[in-house]
Amino acid sequence: MVGRRKVTADEHLLDSQRSEEWKQRAAWRSLRILSEFVDGFETLSELDQTQAVGVFGSARSGEGTPEYTLGRELGRKLAEAGCTVITGGGPGAMEAANRGAQDRDGMSVGLGIELPFEQGINAYTDLEVDFRYFFVRKVMFLKYSQGFCVLPGGYGTMDELFEALTLVQTNKVGKFPIALIGTEFWGGLVDWLRDTMAKAGNISYADLDLMIVTDDLDEAVDHMVSNCK
Ligand SMILES: CC(C)=CCNc1ncnc2c1ncn2[C@@H]1O[C@H](COP(=O)(O)O)[C@@H](O)[C@H]1O
């Protein structure tokens, strides 16, 4: 990839090879982390009264792809159902869902993340917060969303999906609907979870019911609305 690569706050925090001076600074860094929580809670507190759904999906599903069209339609349907749409504020499926929400005058939120290559939050958000730390941002997704719709994606999408699943499985959050959208994309993963992971005893078969898999956006939205905590 061409462009200026910046060292991010996450990288500073996680790099254990740095000098003694850096190691000592890591302790002070906790204040910066704290301030990021404060900023996030303060900015997003206006969402406390709304029913919000987090939408995850690939940063690479650009305009013109079937996934972008699907994400935009999902954003529209969530807004029509009265839900605020919260995404990672990036391009691709995130932008599509934010844009769809705005198409229907719904509330559209972007929780952006600092990345080595500058990109900025997409142009379709009404409320945005930019985070330096992935883990702080993940807390915000969980705190302000009452359910998740997951479009096809890559590692980032998997990370967010499995974070949510783990929290539900371990009863850290209560009623928390999760819908995987796209049976062709998700089918192989779900088969593997059942035929390999559950079969090996690493999850229970009941854990497979913590999410639905569908191609029907109305079913996904209905699952969010009727099962929100
Ligand atoms: C073109 C490109 C790589 C841009 C990256 N820009 C991003 N901006 C905001 N959130 C992101 C970005 N990349 C990954 N994420 C996070 O990880 C998920 C997507 O990652 P992935 O594309 O599935 O793995 C999103 O739901 C988002 O929360």
TrEMBL record:
It catalyses: N(6)-(dimethylallyl)adenosine 5'-phosphate + H2O = N(6)-dimethylallyladenine + D-ribose 5-phosphate; 9-ribosyl-trans-zeatin 5'-phosphate + H2O = trans-zeatin + D-ribose 5-phosphate. Keywords: Cytokinin biosynthesis, Hydrolase. Its EC number is 3.2.2.n1. GO terms for biological process: cytokinin biosynthetic process. This is Cytokinin riboside 5'-monophosphate phosphoribohydrolase. GO terms for molecular function: hydrolase activity. It comes from Natronoglycomyces albus. One of its GO terms (cellular component) is cytosol. It comes from the Bacteria.
